[in-house]
Write a structure and sequence with these properties.
about 350 residues, alpha+beta, C8orf32 fold
Length: about 350
Amino acid sequence: MRRAAVCAVVVGLAWVWSPFVPSVFSQVDNARLQRLFAPSDSAVQERTFRVRLRVELENPSFSPLRGVAVTRAIFRDWPEQSVEELSEVQSHGLTARTSLLDGLVRRLHLRAPILRGVEDYVLECKVTRRRLEFDPEELSQWRVAVGSKVARWRTPSPGIESRDPAIRSLCEQLDQPSAAAWHRVERFFQFVRQEVRYRQQPFKGAVAALRSKDGDCEDKAALFIALCRAAGIPARTVWGASHAWAEVALRDDDGKVRWVPCDPTREDRPGRLTSFFPIYQKGDRFRLPELRGKPVRYVMPLCIARSGRPAFQVRDELLEVDGEKLDPPFVMQLYKYSQ
């Protein structure tokens, strides 16, 4: 799974601010990551990971840089995930705070009023991921979720073109509006699972994946979500370390909105999630203040400098799996920008 970089320039009232995302993004040994987070033993119900999140800022010039700020997503609790922060270390020249974007993405904000040399921030945490599996008979009784809390997940997002004629035409062919909501979800899921071949490549979106009949996990999730949204079923993207999948919103027998996982890349049916990829964020349409509200599908690390351009790196490492230390630590993902 590879995420494309996007650059933008924002003109402020007093200064020209230059938010930028890394020019290099890499995930090291994706196959090993898959094995660590997706064990073949079906008896495993949860896995615990100790991870280290590091952000490093460097001034590559001889003159001090002013007003330098970095934001990035960090792990948070979900029904299928618990996060415990173990330690936090930061340079004296940095201030740190967190915020919650749209109630979905926990963001870390680092600020260096004056950057002269190197400043860094390190957060270690324990992430516990639980297996999810819903009873198909129970799901068949649930209805499509409605209301303001899920309305945004029924409309298009970047790369999820649910109003495109090709998507709507396929939706009409597959959908059975009079059937139970879960039966409709299953039809969309099985089409994407069976008809779209997996191919690791840069993200191209739902329409392109439908046209070529191939795509990586992001493309397959995007096409499935687009079909659901075209049918009026709320759905959104879940972003894990090295993997992406979908979840749909249904209303259970008690009237509560429940988000049900659907992974057309790894699973043979919707409603189950047997992998344990740590979840970075959920959702696929955000408007970031740093980009003046430009819609993005994934909240990537951003760096803003009031003057000049610092080098910065975001490096996430896996230190332990179920209490077993990895030596050396295993790089989960790496974002890097340098002039």
